[in-house]
Design brief:
Distance between the termini of chain A: 53 Å
Structural class of chain A: mainly alpha
Largest sheet of chain A: none
Oligomer: homodimer
Helix content of chain A: over 70%
Low-confidence stretches of chain A: 1-8
Shape of chain A: elongated
Order of helices and strands of chain A: HHHHHHHHHHH
Chain lengths: 220, 220
DNA sequence: CTTGTATTAAAACGGTTGTTTAATACAGTT
DNA sequence: AACTGTATTAAACAACCGTTTTAATACAAG
């Protein structure tokens, strides 16, 4: 799928784009030099400005390209009408964790996107509209489904954040996390480890949602 | 307490330190220029190298200084023997949320520390040993207490991360979060909003821990 | 008043950055 | 074969960075 792109990076523009992505992901926008990218892409220093205008526009294109590749590689989960809410939640959590690839070096596409949302540029508004907002929406609907009774939008969003937070914490400060707790998931195969963590967060969240909902219902 | 420091920033070193903190917190290490700091501190450009050696050492001192101020301003929660585990958990969560100051611009000390743990330098090992590791330890003990039965260390750490993650998600990508969901906590006073969120995460976590523990017990 | 030392100030240095220029190579068209 | 527009290159540019140098100044000790 993306192999087509990898096997045919003939045009200088594509070579630059493919070289820029990982470097931007590793070092951020400011610490990345055009010369570095051009060397990796085997093109002249002037090529970036020739094809992309300036460094900022190249970064913009690289982020959008990363999003495009990531969307193609791990699509949103799908289910039929009969799938229970609990199973749908598990599919969601599995997808988030899989995209973030716990403890292993995440692919540059993911790292670049995380970098962008933590230091947002103008590029981020496009990501929010095409990606994050719909994602949060469907998760909120799922939470509403699990909660049963109709709940306050703010409340639903907070529950969604509680779920997402449990996943994202593993990518919040990966190096510091490893420094603090050592290598989580060091032995055994990652596949099974990820499965267990998915189970943990799913059950944790299901119980959490129900407890929080019944608690607030009792208060009102 | 820290007012003593604020009211007496006479020495150039302290003026530089107090000027550097917020700037480093706002723009990160690389995007901050020595000239900028010196202008804010009303000292000559050469002063940073004269008093601190180089830019990196100044950054190091600024981070440690921020940690020192933050520790003095919001100390760890304390309780007596009779405090139930659930209440202790609530105190912990309240402290984390208070330190992160949901949705409001966090103080520069917090932003600088978050910046350091997300882009760790050598300074971070000191923060981990003096701060994060003990913090995670006591939270793990608390989780063990709530779980009742003895549990696997890895499992305990994952439960701790599920709790912490629910809090940190609000600081993971604050601007993008606001772009996606709008201003959470826009009306009403923040004090009460923080209280409600603390309650939510506490009940969510308590139920989550118990559900996850009983689930894994059932599996073994 | 002189000496010695610590501080401040201005200026410059060497290096790197993003970007531009100008020359060259080359394909396609007439 | 001459022309035209695009692609590619080497070189240079101007700006800014962290750091150093050098000199002027302040000031306490003798």
């Amino acid at each position: 799928m993306a192999d087509l792109l990898d096997s045919a990076p003939q045009t200088p523009q594509m070579r630059i784009l493919l070289a820029a992505g990982p470097i931007f992901a590793d070092k951020g926008f400011r610490d990345t030099t055009i010369r570095e990218i051009c060397e990796a892409a085997s093109v002249n220093v002037a090529s970036v400005n020739y094809y992309f205008g300036d460094k900022q526009k190249l970064y913009h294109e690289a982020v959008l390209f990363a999003r495009q590749m990531q969307a193609a590689q791990s699509p949103e989960p799908s289910w039929d009408e009969s799938t229970p809410s609990a199973d749908r939640l598990r599919l969601f959590i599995a997808m988030i964790l899989k995209r973030m690839v716990v403890n292993e070096q995440a692919p540059w596409q993911v790292r670049l996107l995380l970098n962008e949302i933590q230091n947002p540029t103008e590029t981020c508004v496009q990501l929010v509209e095409d990606y994050f907002r719909p994602f949060m929406q469907s998760l909120a609907n799922l939470v509403r489904d699990i909660a049963g009774d109709p709940i306050d939008p703010l409340f639903a969003n907070q529950l969604v954040l509680s779920i997402v937070g449990q996943c994202m914490i593993y990518r919040f400060a990966p190096q510091t996390l490893t420094m603090t707790l050592g290598d989580l998931f060091e032995d055994q195969d990652r596949e099974q480890q990820l499965d267990r963590l998915t189970d943990l967060i799913t059950h944790f969240s299901l119980a959490g949602i129900r407890a929080a909902v019944s608690k607030t219902k009792r208060q009102t």
